[in-house]
Amino acid sequence: MIKKILVFSMVLTAFSCDSPDKKAKLDSLKAEHDKIAQQIQELEKDLDSTGVNDTEINTTTVAVKEMQPVEFKHYIEIQGKIDAEENTQVNTQTPGVVVAINVKEGTHVKKGQVLAELDTQVMNKSLEEVKTQLVLATDLFNKQKNLWDKKIGTEVQYLSAKANKESLEQRLSTMNEQLEMAKFISPISGTVEDIPFKVGQAVSPGQPGSSMRVINMSKVKVVAEVAEAYSANIQTGNEVLVHFPDYNQDVASKITFTSHYIDPTNRTFTVESVLASSEVEYRANMIAKLKINDYTNPVAFVVPVNLVQKSMDGNYVSIAEKNSDYYVAKRKAVKTGISYNGLIEILEGLQPGDKVITTGYMNLKEEEKINF
């Protein structure tokens, strides 16, 4: 076609010329035409030798990804908080007025250590009276016992002296326990984190501001509430990745506890994961984001979600299929699984080695020639 147009234009130019020697002009144009035709033939040969021909000029360039089985994991992401395995509030078991605080916030204490004390002046006086009465009752019992051993006196006198002595001993023991109940005694070893009251302030068990907090951060866990819908897939032992936004760090762990109780108010259950030591400085109630692995397929075909297209017949992906010495676009029907983080699992339809078209697939037609 190019040759015919070129010849026609040359002839038209020749005949339109007003020169008297038209034949000379025509001979000149024919010579030029032969020269151009020869150049065209040489260029066509060069293009054929480099692999660029009319067939490839009409193909569409795409990008492909060859399918091979990979591990696919799905995660659920929820928010939790840090807590210590030993995090307790220390209370007294009796109301009273605080007369002594033996520690301050940040103090390291041991299990059984007295942290603060209430006013027990009245109980101490009563205790001294009982001690005096017990001394007398013990003397009387010993004398009565000696007489009874010698068969002197009556059994009633002996039993009465014994009962009086034992009653006072029991009363003394009870009063000593009551004195202990007026003390703030730490049930764990740890650090005092909060002392909400001062000396002279009245406190009462169960009332706000009446307890001290002691925390032992040597064993730390992350606690979160998970929706009931995930109860079948989240079990003890599931992998979890804990992210700390404040530190921008991740800590890998496993689920160590899943509650068998579902809260009826929000339909959630509790999960816990014990954390190993890391560069993160754990603090109670620190926010943590959990990524819990609830599904794993060790051999899955995975493609970006946007590559899966829909038709009247169902889902499909475009693949490059070889046809003799070139590739063409083909639609491959697929069955999809779950998706995560922009990727989707292909359960059926693909085989190892299939070349899924990842770029340029939107406007491709069936059997269209492609290269990549």
Topology of this structure?
Layout: H1 2-16, H2 22-49, H3 54-57, E1 60-61, E2 63-66, E3 70-90, E4 96-101, E5 108-109, E6 114-118, H4 121-149, H5 155-181, E7 183-185, E8 190-194, E9 202-203, E10 212-227, E11 239-244, E12 249-254, E13 257-258, E14 268-275, E15 287-304, E16 309-311, E17 314-323, E18 326-333, E19 335-340, E20 343-348, E21 355-359, E22 369-371
Parallel strand pairs: 1-22
Antiparallel strand pairs: 2-21, 3-10, 3-15, 4-6, 4-9, 5-8, 6-7, 8-10, 10-14, 11-12, 11-15, 13-14, 15-20, 16-17, 17-18, 17-21, 18-22, 19-20
Could you walk me through the main structural features you see in this protein, from its secondary elements to its overall organization?
- This protein is of the alpha+beta class.
- The chain folds into 4 domains: 2-50; 60-71 and 299-371, conserved putative lor/sdh protein from methanococcus maripaludis s2 fold; 76-84 and 206-297, Elongation Factor Tu (Ef-tu), domain 3, CATH 2.40.30; 94-193, no CATH class.
- The chain has 5 helices and 22 strands.
- Strands 3, 5, 8, 10, 11, 12, 13, 14, 15, 19 and 20 form an 11-stranded antiparallel beta sheet that branches. Strands 1, 2, 16, 17, 18, 21 and 22 form a 7-stranded mixed beta sheet that branches.
